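Workshop exercise sheet. Pairs work together: one partner reads the sequence aloud, the other fills in the structure field after running the prediction. Swap roles for the next sheet.
Pair: D.N. / O.F.
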Amino acid sequence: MVWVLRILKIVLCLVCGALMVVILMQQGSGYGLSSGITGGYSQTYVGRHRKDTPEGRMQRATAFLITAFFVLALLINVLGNA
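Structure field:
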């Protein structure tokens, strides 16, 4: 059981490192309150097809890594207390 926890902790560290890199690689949105009121970016072709852009892929990678981080942290906590 100890080796499983060690492997999970190593994977958690790798996920944390990847999450830091992915978050730092993203650029700021730059869209303030005015785009929220008028629609702004979502009205354009790129706004509607954002998931196909590199920024969209980075957002999906961020969401995946955050989910993996929380699942691993909970799993380590549950297995460590057993």
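Discussion prompt: DSSP finds four helices and no strands in the chain. What would you look at next?
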